[in-house]
Amino acid sequence: MPTSEDTASRCRSLGIPLTTLDEHPRLALAIDGADEVGPGLDLIKGLGGALLREKLVALAAKRFVVIADDSKRVRRLGTRAPLPVEVVPFGWTTHTAFFERLGAEPALRRGADGEPYRTDGGNYVVDCRFPRGIEDPRALARALARRPGIVEDGLFLGMADTAFIASSKGVKKITR
Question: Under DSSP, is residue 52 helix (H, G, I), strand (E, B) or coil?
């Protein structure tokens, strides 16, 4: 079950059979990467631009497993990767001051052509950097969810059951 049109296209070109959430709304297992893995297996995901679809697939799964390398481990979310926030294009600039009040340094994501990056759903992504990390990820997620025009954020809190973290010393299994 691909979480982006790009992945779906690559799978089709290789003859890999695909399905959709509409065809299979409950999954036994979802496996995906993460941009940051924090305490309690809280995650930041979505730097590839598919945060909404990735979250929908993870929510549909009975078990959600994350695979990452040890460079993705952080003590506080937001210290290495920006938090992607998907917003509708109409009036997207109205969110800038809101993000700043939350402690972020927001930047509209742009494609290689310099135009605003668009998700598969046609929305923009604002990458929010938090200079000292995200102090309270749950409070931030609640604030973002209440804001009209914000479609989704890349905070995957309490969703992962297990993470496999690879390093030069081997693979470590972490469970929640």
Answer: helix
What is the spatial order of strands in the sheet that 150-153 belongs to? 105-108, 124-129, 83-87, 150-153
pTM of the model: 0.94
Report, as residue numbers or ranges, the catalytic residues: 54
The whole-angstrom separation of Cα 121 and Cα 86 is 10
Buried b (16+ CB within 10 A) or exposed e, 19-28: eeeeeeeebe
Four-point Cα dihedral 99, 100, 103, 109, nearest 10: 60
User: How does pLDDT run along the chain (176 residues), one tens digit per residue?
Assistant: 999 999 999 999 999 999 999 999 999 999 999 999 999 999 999 999 999 999 999 999 999 999 999 999 999 999 999 999 999 999 999 999 999 999 999 999 999 999 999 999 999 999 999 999 999 999 999 999 999 999 999 999 999 999 999 999 999 999 98
As assigned by CATH, the class of the 5-167 domain is alpha beta
Q: How many CB atoms lie within 10 A of CB 101?
A: 9
Q: Domain limits of the chain? A: 5-167
